[in-house]
Amino acid sequence: MNVGMGTYIIITSVYSGAGVSNDRVVFYRGPACTVPTGLVKINSKVAYTVGKATTKKDEMKVFPVTLTILSWQLIQNGTVIKSGGPVPTMFDIFSIKGNRLYTSGTTKGSPGTMPNPTERPTMLDMVNYYTRQ
Questions:
Q1: pTM flag (> 0.85)
Q2: Cβ-based neighbour number of residue 73 at 10 Å
Q3: Which of 52, 55, 85, 106 is 20 to 30 A from residue 67's alpha carbon, by CA?
Protein backbone atom coordinates (compact mmCIF):
# COMPACT_ATOMS: atom_id res chain seq x y z
CA MET A 1 0.00 0.00 0.00
CA ASN A 2 1.37 3.41 -0.97
CA VAL A 3 1.75 5.74 2.02
CA GLY A 4 3.31 8.61 0.07
CA MET A 5 6.75 9.91 -0.94
CA GLY A 6 7.76 6.60 -2.55
CA THR A 7 7.15 4.63 0.64
CA TYR A 8 4.97 1.55 0.63
CA ILE A 9 3.89 -0.76 3.45
CA ILE A 10 2.83 -4.31 3.98
CA ILE A 11 0.66 -4.83 7.06
CA THR A 12 0.28 -8.24 8.66
CA SER A 13 -2.48 -8.42 11.27
CA VAL A 14 -3.49 -11.34 13.48
CA TYR A 15 -6.93 -11.22 15.11
CA SER A 16 -8.04 -13.48 17.95
CA GLY A 17 -11.60 -14.23 18.95
CA ALA A 18 -10.79 -12.69 22.33
CA GLY A 19 -10.88 -9.10 21.03
CA VAL A 20 -7.11 -8.63 20.81
CA SER A 21 -4.96 -8.34 17.71
CA ASN A 22 -1.40 -7.48 16.79
CA ASP A 23 0.01 -5.83 13.68
CA ARG A 24 3.38 -5.72 11.95
CA VAL A 25 3.87 -2.84 9.51
CA VAL A 26 6.97 -3.12 7.29
CA PHE A 27 8.05 -0.07 5.25
CA TYR A 28 9.49 -0.46 1.73
CA ARG A 29 10.92 1.66 -1.08
CA GLY A 30 9.00 1.22 -4.32
CA PRO A 31 5.68 -0.41 -5.21
CA ALA A 32 7.13 -3.93 -5.58
CA CYS A 33 7.84 -3.98 -1.82
CA THR A 34 11.15 -5.77 -2.35
CA VAL A 35 13.50 -3.17 -0.84
CA PRO A 36 12.84 -2.70 2.89
CA THR A 37 13.70 0.65 4.46
CA GLY A 38 14.66 -1.04 7.73
CA LEU A 39 11.71 0.58 9.51
CA VAL A 40 9.08 -1.64 11.16
CA LYS A 41 6.19 -0.71 13.44
CA ILE A 42 4.82 -3.37 15.78
CA ASN A 43 1.43 -2.82 17.39
CA SER A 44 1.84 -5.58 19.96
CA LYS A 45 -1.55 -5.30 21.63
CA VAL A 46 -4.64 -3.90 19.94
CA ALA A 47 -8.00 -4.19 21.68
CA TYR A 48 -10.99 -4.31 19.35
CA THR A 49 -14.76 -4.65 19.43
CA VAL A 50 -17.06 -5.35 16.49
CA GLY A 51 -20.58 -3.96 16.30
CA LYS A 52 -23.76 -5.07 14.55
CA ALA A 53 -23.58 -5.41 10.75
CA THR A 54 -25.45 -3.33 8.22
CA THR A 55 -25.89 -4.41 4.61
CA LYS A 56 -24.41 -2.17 1.94
CA LYS A 57 -23.99 -2.21 -1.81
CA ASP A 58 -23.61 -5.66 -3.41
CA GLU A 59 -25.13 -7.30 -0.31
CA MET A 60 -21.86 -6.91 1.62
CA LYS A 61 -22.26 -6.81 5.38
CA VAL A 62 -20.39 -3.86 6.84
CA PHE A 63 -19.39 -3.94 10.50
CA PRO A 64 -18.35 -1.03 12.73
CA VAL A 65 -15.11 -1.74 14.57
CA THR A 66 -13.49 0.15 17.43
CA LEU A 67 -9.73 -0.30 17.95
CA THR A 68 -7.30 0.92 20.59
CA ILE A 69 -3.56 0.29 20.20
CA LEU A 70 -2.47 -0.38 23.77
CA SER A 71 1.26 -0.76 23.07
CA TRP A 72 3.55 -0.24 20.06
CA GLN A 73 7.21 -0.12 19.06
CA LEU A 74 8.99 1.57 16.17
CA ILE A 75 12.07 -0.40 15.12
CA GLN A 76 14.86 0.80 12.79
CA ASN A 77 17.27 -1.87 11.56
CA GLY A 78 16.50 -4.14 14.52
CA THR A 79 16.78 -1.45 17.21
CA VAL A 80 13.75 -0.07 19.08
CA ILE A 81 13.85 3.70 18.51
CA LYS A 82 10.51 4.60 20.07
CA SER A 83 7.67 2.90 21.92
CA GLY A 84 4.45 3.89 23.56
CA GLY A 85 0.75 3.42 24.04
CA PRO A 86 -2.07 3.65 24.31
CA VAL A 87 -3.02 5.77 21.31
CA PRO A 88 -6.41 7.44 20.74
CA THR A 89 -9.24 5.03 19.99
CA MET A 90 -9.95 4.55 16.29
CA PHE A 91 -13.42 4.07 14.80
CA ASP A 92 -13.59 2.31 11.44
CA ILE A 93 -15.71 -0.08 9.37
CA PHE A 94 -14.89 -3.35 7.65
CA SER A 95 -16.37 -6.01 5.42
CA ILE A 96 -15.21 -9.48 4.44
CA LYS A 97 -15.80 -10.92 0.99
CA GLY A 98 -14.13 -14.25 0.25
CA ASN A 99 -10.57 -14.03 1.54
CA ARG A 100 -10.50 -10.20 1.41
CA LEU A 101 -10.92 -7.82 4.34
CA TYR A 102 -11.94 -4.31 3.30
CA THR A 103 -11.68 -1.26 5.57
CA SER A 104 -12.31 2.44 5.00
CA GLY A 105 -8.67 2.97 4.07
CA THR A 106 -8.75 6.29 5.94
CA THR A 107 -5.33 7.96 6.24
CA LYS A 108 -3.71 5.65 3.70
CA GLY A 109 -4.11 2.31 5.38
CA SER A 110 -4.77 3.27 8.98
CA PRO A 111 -8.23 3.13 10.47
CA GLY A 112 -9.93 6.45 10.97
CA THR A 113 -8.82 8.32 14.07
CA MET A 114 -12.20 9.90 14.56
CA PRO A 115 -12.78 11.30 18.06
CA ASN A 116 -16.15 9.59 18.43
CA PRO A 117 -18.23 6.88 16.75
CA THR A 118 -20.56 9.41 15.08
CA GLU A 119 -17.65 10.45 12.83
CA ARG A 120 -16.86 6.87 11.81
CA PRO A 121 -16.04 6.49 8.06
CA THR A 122 -18.96 5.32 5.92
CA MET A 123 -17.26 4.18 2.69
CA LEU A 124 -15.13 1.08 2.15
CA ASP A 125 -11.86 1.27 0.19
CA MET A 126 -12.48 -1.41 -2.47
CA VAL A 127 -9.02 -0.96 -4.05
CA ASN A 128 -6.75 -1.61 -1.06
CA TYR A 129 -7.59 -4.65 1.06
CA TYR A 130 -6.09 -7.29 3.33
CA THR A 131 -5.82 -10.89 2.08
CA ARG A 132 -6.48 -13.76 4.46
CA GLN A 133 -3.52 -16.14 4.61
A1: no
A2: 15
A3: 55
